[in-house]
Structure formats: C-alpha cells, structure tokens
Amino acid sequence: MSLWSGVFRNNPIFRLVLGLCPTLAVTTSLENAIGMGLAATFVLLCSNALVSALRKVIPAAVHIPCYIVIIATFVTAIDLLLQAYLPALSQSLGIFIPLIVVNCIILGRAEAFASKNGVIDSLADALGSGIGFTLSLSLIAAVREVVGAGSLTVWGDIAFKNLNPGPMTLAILPAGGFITLGLLLALINRIVEWNARRHGAPPPLPVSLDCRHCTMCPNGK
Known about the structure:
Blueprint: H1 3-7, H2 20-26, H3 30-53, H4 63-85, H5 87-93, H6 104-112, H7 119-149, E1 152-155, E2 158-160, H8 174-198
Antiparallel strand pairs: 1-2
C-alpha cells in the first residue's frame, strides 16, 4: 500500500470501514477528531517502523503478541504525553486513547504490511493510513459539530460560532454518528462510482464482509 492508497483507495474508514468504534465516539467535535487522528498516526508510524525493523527477529509463532506489546508501548507513551501537555484533550478522548492498542487499523497494518516490507515503505504506509484516518474523522466531526452544535472547534480557542442558526442536537448524539457516517459513506461510494464511469471503467465492487476478501491483506490471504 502506497502513501496515497491509504488516503484514498484504501481509506481505513470510508473504503475499508475499519475503526468505527472510535470513529463514532470521538467525532462530536473537530478538535477531538484531530487529536485522535494524530495520536493514531503517531502510533502507526512508530509501530510500523519497529515491526518492520524487527520482522526477521520476531518468531512467527508469537508475532501477534509481539505486535500488541509494541503497539501498547507507543500507546502508553502518547497517552502520558497527552495527560501531561494536553490534559483537556486527554480527558475528552478518555478511554479511546488506551483503546488504540486494539484498533484493527494499527494491528492490521503491522501484520499485513510492516511485517513483510522495509522500514521506509512501512513508514509511508503508516503515514498514508494515518492521514486517511485523520481526514475521515475530521470530515465526520465537522459535519456533526456544525449540524449538531452550530459551531466548529478546530483547536483550543480557535473556533467558529453561529455557523448553523438551527442546530440539531441529534447529530452529536450516538444515533447521529451512525446517521452521519452512513450518509457520508453513501455519498463517497456514489462519487467513486461516478468517477469510475467517467473514465470508462465499471464501478468498483463493494468489499465482501469476510476475511478472505479483506483488502488489508495482499492476495486476500
């Protein structure tokens, strides 16, 4: 997976539909989405680099536990850094920072790519997936916050108020997260289909919902 593949063709949320638990939980504000995306990108970069560097040393029989230990180490580091320097954001994101350890995007990239490729390629793969994840979170959060609260909190005191004269509280509730994600998924799938037809290609088939067809693993293996 190249850098741009993780941003567009294999976007973790809008194309692979992964990591939906934090996606729905933290996208009540743009600030939360950016913070979560940057934290996940940091863990992706560090864990992919270390897994790639140690890929010939880690025994095949215990590679998954080893990957989890590596990921947990960097998650602990970013969690402590947030608590020390951005306590408000750390409190807002809550349990979802420690839960990055079991985020299927992080573990999936370590298993499917970093364990089979060099450090530079693994860093590019991690950066692409991290950017794609962050942009997706930010888009969902921006829609939910503007519609649901009438504001847009970019970071700290950088905020825009009164963007929506009639805010709908439903958008920032859990049900609103599902609705917003579903509408954006439908819109993006429609755009992808339109773009394919415009170039004379058949619309891409949806990814089957079983492990054999998961696009995270090369050749469906």
